[in-house]
Amino acid sequence: MSKLGNILGNVFGAGAEKVIGSVGAIIDDVVTTKEEREALKLEVQKEINRNLEALASQALTETELEYKEMDSARSREVELAKAGAKDTVPSVLAYLAVGGFWSIIIFLLIFGFGALSVEQALLVGGLIGTLGSNSTTVYNYYFGSSSGSRRKSEEMEELRKQLTDGKPKSGA
């Protein structure tokens, strides 16, 4: 048990190491027979499994919430498209993200980094990486799979209108 206490102490701090160490000492004093040790192992394994199931259930719930949130955003876009409205917020944010990223890259290419400490270099690198990741997300949204999904939704909506109105599209 002291090995487990050392490991948990490294992960959670010295307090966890002390608690696990003292619990281990109590168990060693109380559990003296082989049958008791086997029963203890079985109960500990049950508790571990219960916790793993709870964690898996929580992860599933979080994933379901993420999907509901994405579906809600998609539904909002569809409703806006049906109403003929255009939401300009995503495109403004996209321009800011991509423009900010390229502005910083151009600035750094022209003026350089200068003398940076290790901490400053890590911070600048992290910020540039974050901006680059945001730019990639914007490109994927407008030109990647989201763009294709949006085009497909628009085509399906146009087909629905044609079927309900009974009029083919002028170019078809």
Give a brief outline of the structure:
By secondary structure, this protein is mainly α. The chain contains 6 helices and no strands.
Describe this structure in words.
The protein is mainly α. It is built from six helices and no strands. It has helices at about 1-10, 15-30, 35-85, 90-110, 120-145, 145-165. Helix 4 packs across helix 5 (about 120-145). It starts with a helix and ends in a 7-residue tail after the last helix. The mean pLDDT is about 80.
The whole-angstrom Rg is 29 Å
Poorly predicted tracts of residues: none
The pLDDT mean sits at 78
Which secondary-structure class do the elements indicate?
Answer: mainly alpha
Shape: flat
Helix tally equals: 6
Percent helix among the residues?
over 70%
Assembly level: single chain
What fraction of the residues are assigned to beta strands by DSSP?
A: under 5%
Give the biggest beta sheet.
none
User: What is the straight-line distance between the termini?
Assistant: 76 Å
Q: Would you report the number of β strands?
A: 0
What is the string of SSEs from the N terminus onward? HHHHHH
